[in-house]
Amino acid sequence: MYWKLNIPSGATWATIKNMPCKVTVTASYYIEAKGNNATYADVYWGQYHTGYGYASVNGTSPHESALTTKTFYGTVGDVFSGGSVGPHYGGAGAQVDTGQYPAGAGQASGAIVCYSVVLTFPQASG
User: Is residue 28 exposed (0-12), middle (13-18) or buried (19+ Cβ within 10 Å)?
Assistant: First the structure.
C-alpha cells in the first residue's frame, strides 16, 4: 500500500519532516523450497524503505512459517520521500519472492497474508 502525504495548511516539509511517524504491519507467512541451496523463497513485511522484516529459506532449510508483526519507529521524513517540494509518498505491505539462481532443479513457493497496516503520527515528546 502507498500513501501520499498532504502537508497541513500553514506547515512546510521542513516543519514536519522530523516529527515522529510509526508504521506497524502484521502478517502471517509460509515459505518453502525444495532442491539445492540455490532454490529459495523470501518474504518481506513492513515499511518499504528501511523498516521491514525478512525471512528466507532454501533447499537446505526447506520451510518456515510464522505470524509476525514489524513496527518501524522513525520520522515523517523516513517514511515519506519526495524532497523539500514533494509530492511525498510512503508505503508498507508484504511480498514473497521465489526462484533459483543459477538455473537448476528445484521448486519454491510462498504465501503471505497481510492482516493490518497501521500508520500513526504519535505526539512528539518534550
Answer: middle
> Three-state DSSP class for 122?
coil
pTM of the complete model: 0.86
pLDDT at residue 72 tops 70? yes
- Residue 32: what pLDDT? 96
Strands 51-58 and 39-47 turn out to be: antiparallel
* Distance between CA atoms of residues 19 and 125, nearest Å: 10
- Residue written as grid cell 520451510: 63
Q: Is the pLDDT of residue 126 over 60?
A: no
Q: Are 122 and 55 in contact (CB under 8 A)?
A: no
Which of these, 108, 90, 110, 118, lies nearest to 25 by C-alpha position? Answer: 118
Q: Which residue has the higher pLDDT, 57 or 123?
A: 57
Burial class (CB in 10 A: 0-12, 13-18, 19+), 123: exposed
